[in-house]
């Protein structure tokens, strides 16, 4: 069920004539489109990464005993809520940066794939944009690295998201 | 226009032969796919819930007269901006938790539906994941309940999002 | 490749008969659907706007020398991290408001388009909702304007997102 290796959705010979006349655009947001499948893979990796941020936050909260809600205190036998711990705040800033950049990147890439870009370019753009965000998290929240490591990782995905937005705008501006 | 009760997109007899040969995958992201329709329903409920968080925040701000912007002060005849009110911050933490978890869950579920999972499993997964988030908001922001209520609700959607991501990865990893 | 001016996906005369019998619903999430193309355009504009918020934040951080991470200090030759600058915090509040409202609006509009609304209504709804958010950012983060300017812009998109959610719920509630 999952191992259809070709992009042509033609299970029986009798359907060839019908599908040969179907424009490729019809299947852009379908798993048979390699670009969309590539998008699905990298989106899953980014979502897993974002979920890891929650675990990182929880680990830092446990380690530094910094809990933000009174009902969480029984987890640590501590006496009061605390805010502003450095390690917790660093992970939370990295997480918020993800919300501000990864979610728009994922939505924009979906629109970009739907606009029917060149397959080779599109897959490269998705791979680089997603990899840069994985790197960004590493140098921000896992091992703090001196600048400009983080700025470069940030700028890569930022630029790619802009490129995708401009591409879609150029494609579809007449429907505004 | 909205009451097409069957999933078969065959309006006229003459089109049967063409559509009988069309693979089902083509229509995964279409309302005629019951899994996608199920996704649309639960996504709408989650979006409505997230919008409610804004109203909850506004209510707490009004009640405790905690306004973050100088230009909002005329709403309360108060004299200065304030930050850090407990009730406002609790709702805002719950809202941020939504951003960190509900949005990835919604995007991931869309990718999961597009990957063509087993319909029965997929609908169950979407229903449980979305319901757990509705419960999470209730025990976090509406009626604060002792742990582990919130942790369990959080972990349910978290696990389901991971499951969806892994499923999509297994399906499409060769397109990486 | 990008300049197909008509919405009819019929590249060759021989395919007309096959496509004439294909229901329109199959192509709702396709660029040949003018509503979806309209959605793509406005979503690109909103994503570009959200990216601008990052640049606005960076500009305010540079201007006021308010850096949140020790490794950023070499950018300003400053001696310590700082938090809570008024100008930085205003832009960040506006950005967070975007996350809370623009992302749900974009996801909800996608679901709304997928539910097959009336094309004229749908395009109007998307245009107004997206324009209101562009206005919201302007009166919040660029030129602070007395209330109720911001509340009105906020309420417009808020109401439209609710409308879309209710529409999708009414369409698809039987698949819950």
Automatic annotation (TrEMBL), chains A, B, C:
<dbReference type="GO" id="GO:0005789">
    <property type="term" value="C:endoplasmic reticulum membrane"/>
</dbReference>
<dbReference type="InterPro" id="IPR040162">
    <property type="entry name" value="MGST1-like"/>
</dbReference>
<dbReference type="GO" id="GO:0004364">
    <property type="term" value="F:glutathione transferase activity"/>
</dbReference>
<keyword id="KW-1000">Mitochondrion outer membrane</keyword>
<dbReference type="Pfam" id="PF01124">
    <property type="entry name" value="MAPEG"/>
</dbReference>
<dbReference type="InterPro" id="IPR001129">
    <property type="entry name" value="Membr-assoc_MAPEG"/>
</dbReference>
<protein>
    <recommendedName>
        <fullName>Microsomal glutathione S-transferase 1</fullName>
        <ecNumber>2.5.1.18</ecNumber>
    </recommendedName>
</protein>
<comment type="similarity">
    <text>Belongs to the MAPEG family.</text>
</comment>
<keyword id="KW-0007">Acetylation</keyword>
<feature type="transmembrane region" description="Helical">
    <location>
        <begin position="34"/>
        <end position="56"/>
    </location>
</feature>
<keyword id="KW-0472">Membrane</keyword>
<feature type="transmembrane region" description="Helical">
    <location>
        <begin position="149"/>
        <end position="173"/>
    </location>
</feature>
<dbReference type="InterPro" id="IPR023352">
    <property type="entry name" value="MAPEG-like_dom_sf"/>
</dbReference>
<keyword id="KW-0812">Transmembrane</keyword>
<keyword id="KW-0808">Transferase</keyword>
<comment type="subunit">
    <text>Homotrimer; The trimer binds only one molecule of glutathione.</text>
</comment>
<keyword id="KW-1133">Transmembrane helix</keyword>
<dbReference type="GO" id="GO:0005741">
    <property type="term" value="C:mitochondrial outer membrane"/>
</dbReference>
<keyword id="KW-0256">Endoplasmic reticulum</keyword>
<keyword id="KW-0496">Mitochondrion</keyword>
<comment type="function">
    <text>Conjugation of reduced glutathione to a wide number of exogenous and endogenous hydrophobic electrophiles.</text>
</comment>
């Amino acid at each position: 069920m999952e191992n259809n290796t070709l992009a042509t959705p033609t299970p029986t010979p009798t359907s060839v004539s019908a599908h040969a006349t179907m424009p490729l655009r019809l299947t852009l947001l379908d798993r048979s489109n390699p670009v969309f499948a590539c998008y699905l893979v990298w989106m899953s990796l980014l979502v897993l990464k974002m979920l890891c941020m929650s675990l990182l936050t929880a680990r830092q909260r446990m380690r530094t005993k910094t809990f933000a809600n009174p009902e969480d205190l029984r987890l640590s036998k501590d006496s009061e809520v605390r805010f502003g711990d450095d390690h917790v705040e660093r992970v939370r800033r990295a997480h918020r940066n993800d919300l501000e950049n990864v979610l728009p990147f994922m939505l924009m890439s979906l629109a970009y794939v739907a606009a029917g870009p060149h397959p080779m370019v599109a897959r490269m753009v998705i791979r680089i944009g997603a990899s840069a965000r994985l790197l960004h998290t590493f140098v921000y929240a896992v091992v703090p690295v001196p600048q400009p490591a983080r700025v470069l990782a940030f700028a890569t995905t930022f630029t790619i998201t802009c490129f995708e937005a401009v591409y879609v705008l150029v494609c579809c501006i007449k429907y505004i």
